[in-house]
Design brief:
By secondary structure, the chain is α+β, with helices and mostly antiparallel strands. It has a single domain, classed as GIY-YIG endonuclease (3-Layer(aba) Sandwich), CATH 3.40.1440. Helices cover 37% and strands 20% of the residues. Strand 1 and strand 2 form a beta hairpin. Helix 3 packs antiparallel against helix 4.
């Protein structure tokens, strides 16, 4: 049985890279040592493994990765810091037309 990892790498330019792998150490090293010059992390090294979450189901891992990729930088930082209260706040809809703001 494989384990799958969704990870967030913090790049030297302070940007975040989100990815999925079934071998976290190997994949991090590939990014860190620049095995692929076309990778978006190649010119942003050195990297820090800021966050990872383990999954037994590849479909759940893919879903979570796609979800994180759509998040704002602040939401990613809250996840990395384990600040789940802030993550909840940042997840709430603040649109004036949202049903929670209607009379």
């Amino acid at each position: 049985m494989f384990l799958y990892y969704v990870n967030i790498l913090k790049c030297s330019d302070e940007s975040y890279y989100t990815g999925i792998t079934n071998n976290l150490e190997k994949r991090f090293n590939e990014h860190q040592f620049g095995f692929n010059m076309d990778a978006c992390t190649y010119k942003r090294r050195p990297l820090i493994l800021a966050f990872y979450q383990e999954f037994k189901d590849v479909l759940q891992a893919i879903y979570f990765e796609k979800k994180i990729k759509g998040w704002t930088r602040l939401k990613k930082q809250a996840l990395i810091n384990g600040d789940f209260d802030m993550l909840q706040i940042l997840s709430e809809c603040r649109n004036a037309t949202h049903y929670t703001y209607k009379d």
